Amino acid sequence: MTQAPEAILLVGGKGTRLRPLTVRTPKPMVPAAGVPFLTHQLARARAAGVEHVVMATSYLAEVFEPYFGDGSDLGLHLEYVTEEEPLGTGGAIRNVAPRLHSGPDDPVLIFNGDILTGLDIPALVATHQESGADVSLHLSRVEDPRAFGLVPTDEAGRVLAFLEKPQTPEEIVTDQINAGAYVFRRSVIDTIPTGRPVSVERETFPGLLESGAHLQGMVDSTYWLDLGTPQAFVRGSADLVLGRAPSPAVPGRRGESLILDGAHVAPDAKLSEGTVVGVGAHVGAGARITGSTLLDGAYVAEGAVVTDSLIGAGARVGARTHVTGAVIGDGADAGADNELRDGLRLWCDAVLPDGGVRFSPDR
């Protein structure tokens, strides 16, 4: 039995749904609860016994290694492999295979770089080894599975099919979804085609199933959240601060708020529901920040109200402005007496003048 399986982290996506957060920063490097989201994944992998991690990078690949280096600060050995052209999930896995040290039958953990989860990683590895599977998948149960790939299993947990994003009631045959964490038998990775994009969800897994391979599912319905949208990302960060989502990497005590070094919060400002105030950020007198993230150097003026929103690095929210369920991009300036709500996104460096105007996507 391999005591310390290797891991591959898929961190090459462009994070299109997260724009403008990802215009200047790759999705896994956007801060959640005070540190790049990727830090939480790496810390949880290390806590589960993983020692060697290969990162499959692509979009803004140059920012990862300067931040994490060789991984020694986290007790890991990190390597980086950059795709010249995007290869999809399967192609990325195959592309980094030469950096793995595992034997043909050893387990290799694979994580998507945008999933916040309380998955019991050792239990997934144990399930994989005890079942003798070629690939094992973390499955989670959700109330509305239409946005996900369904994975029905038999009574022993063996995968029966992969059903992509069903829409009709007849198609929804299970509430189990592919939760984005896998264990591959090392030799199976070498069967993925090279030099072209490959999707594990749409090509690799269905192909393995058709060929008679053993794919095992393990349902673990602890905390799970896809951080693909700004609203989900803000909620995930808040859940980390509140202690609802597990991570050994939160840089401070869990509670209603996390205030990082150098931040200034006025004595009568109110921070709640997992709010994060980044390094050097400013919260003015009488401001109310609820369930939101202020990135480094953000400025929220007096009397402003920010709810379930993300304020980018160096961005400014003017006096008495209300921001609800919105994203203010890095360096943007939302002037005084405005109302931004309902998923509105103010682009990086944009300037919104003062004026008491209500802005939302449907107006």
UniProtKB/TrEMBL annotation:
Domain of life assignment: Bacteria
UniProt cross-references to Pfam families, sorted A to Z: GMPPB_C, NTP_transferase
TM stretches of this protein: none
Domain Nucleotidyl transferase span(s) in chain numbering: 7-239
Extent of the signal sequence: none
UniProt domain Mannose-1-phosphate guanyltransferase C-terminal: residue ranges: 255-332
InterPro entries: GMPPB_C, Mannose-1P_guanyltransferase, NTP_transferase_dom, Nucleotide-diphossugar_trans, Trimer_LpxA-like_sf
Similarity annotation: Belongs to the transferase hexapeptide repeat family.
Name recorded for this polypeptide: NDP-sugar synthase
Source species: Streptomyces albidoflavus
